[in-house]
Records
---
Amino acid sequence: MNKDILYNKKDRKILKKELAAESFNRITCSFYRYVAIENPSLSRDTLYKEWNQLQIFGRVYISHEGINAQVSCPEHKWNSFIKSINSYDAFKGIPVKRAVRDGRSFYKLVIKVKKEIVAYKISDEDYDMGSVGSHLNAQEFNDRLEKENAIAVDMRNYYESEVGKFEEAIIPDVDTSRELLPAVKKMLNGRESDPILLYCTGGIRCEKASSYLIKNGFKNVSQLNGGIIQYAHEVQEKGIRSKFRGKNFVFDERMGESITDDVIGKCHQCNTPADSHIDCGNDACHILFIQCKKCNTTYDGCCSKECKEFASLPIEEQRVLRKDPQKVVSKSRYSSKIKPKLRELRN
Ligand SMILES: [Zn+2]
Ligand SMILES: [Zn+2]
């Protein structure tokens, strides 16, 4: 097959311009399923060709264990897209969740073959997808939260819960999905019989996480069906009180969708209330952090004075400096890629 039609190699700036010039609206949505896929590479190429033609943008992971997709679809292609998804036996009837807020989310289509659709890096003996936590809708989840000894666990990464979370949820202090499950197991040590309530963005992480906890001796594990996205829809439609406060972090250009108006995050630079994740404007850094409007101006959208200075150099000079590890100003200064200790760095 001609590789050119299977990958988008255009420059990011051009793609963003094309997206901005589109004359139609896009629907942002997500879906996943744990299902055996025999030949993920072949499925990947087939889906890419088909969805590229439908002008689908977004990020899709395919593996032997299933599919995980966050995409945007032109409004007028929506029915064709749903038809396309359902034309595959493995994906027939898959629940497609529309985003709480639309908006320009992705600017190209990326479909990757992965080992796991959620990279927990746990061994096959540590979970069994035939036994997962019971699925709760919004009202049931709210009710269960009130139960004695109930304990809600945020299964997302730390930086996601910094801008929005369920009241009183436990936030595991880890940087990557890989460290998450062992950390959660440790935190819940001794609570094997208590009601454990798991939640994540769209539900996919809880499927496997609940299976892992059950396999590790937890007896009362349930999960928020369809994740925060589905919860937000139900809260809106049924007039239920939202126990989730703040923003639902999403991995696309929007960086988050507000569920309630609460601003629960803090600017990583000056500590005032803020809930906007920023990608450091220094191309050699690109660290993800929370920044208030004022600091955004002061630091030119960068994570530090050093990055601001580096980013303001002529691009040619930056290129030369980037070759020298002593002179480049990059995120390697941080002990963690996604949770920079910016204030400590400054002092
Ligand atoms: Zn600030
Ligand atoms: Zn930076």
---
Amino acid sequence: MKNLLFEPLEIGPVRLENRVVAAPVATGTSTREGLPTADTLAAHALIAESGVGLSVVEHHAVHKDGRTRLRQPLLDREEVIPYQRKLYEVYATANCPAFIQLNHAGSLINDEEMLNGNFIPYGPSPIRHPYCHLYVMPRAMAIKEIEAVTAQFAEAAKLALRAGYPGVEIHGCHGFLIGQFLSPLTNHRSDRYGGEIKNRARLLFEIYEAVRDSIPGENPVAVRLGVADTMPQKPPAGLTVEESKWVARELAAKKVSLLDLSGNLCGYEGTGNAYFAPYAEAIKEVAGSVPVICTGGINDAETAENLLREGICDLVGLGRILRRDPETVNKWSKERR
Ligand SMILES: Cc1cc2nc3c(=O)[nH]c(=O)nc-3n(C[C@H](O)[C@H](O)[C@H](O)COP(=O)(O)O)c2cc1C
């Protein structure tokens, strides 16, 4: 039987040699000014050489207020370019395609030091983030601030390309800013960014369009979408799969290059094998020709191969297993060839 895991796939001009994606995993190794360090390069070299078809490089904040931690890399200014070129070179040298993930944390601050000084985090509404372990009461963003964040994503995408990356991924999950707008639990706005899903998804669509327009048409723009606020086995509350199917359909119509799926306010830590497979399957139904990545609890080649064979997704994402054992893909390859 044909082995789907090691089939190539083209995303625009980017050729993936197999269907395994290194999911973005923050290394916490950048300087406090958001610059990658030797430790960052070393962590990414292991992934670049791991045999994956694509790596999505850990989330980079598009503005210093949009960091979830102080030691999160920034893609916010000219100064980062030479540092980012070095990071990208790690991938280029290993012939491993890499997209870089762009994020704004909104009210999901995970670092107490971020709250020192006069900084007041912002988000869609003055609501405490349900899964933030710190006491953060955000203020509601003004329309002008929403527009500014959208422009920051577009600028970050331009910087990414100048550093060498052929594509970018917009982080729209795990309860960060875009996820806070998507969720009715954190978004109580009564303007055009709140209420029904078409309004809650407006920020995501505007960011997607601004990013798409800021870089050449052939360079891929992926979206990592938080499909629901609850895990698949839990009763729905907040953002629902049905709403996200509509969002995904719209993104597919806007020619998104790749739909990478995860949880929204529920985060990404589930139990069992391939725990987000039901969400991937639901989105795959509406994604048309847009490739779909399923990530979460995929820890063996058989599970990965079955997800592809059953048409649940086109690519499988590996997070923690690849960091524990960067030889995973090589082992899977030996097992299955
Ligand atoms: C330490 C750590 C850091 C993470 N950083 C990111 C990130 O920067 N961006 C993102 O979208 N997901 C991030 N994730 C989520 C992973 O991409 C992935 O979805 C999750 O680990 C589930 O997949 P797994 O079961 O294969 O580990 C992170 C996960 C961990 C454990």
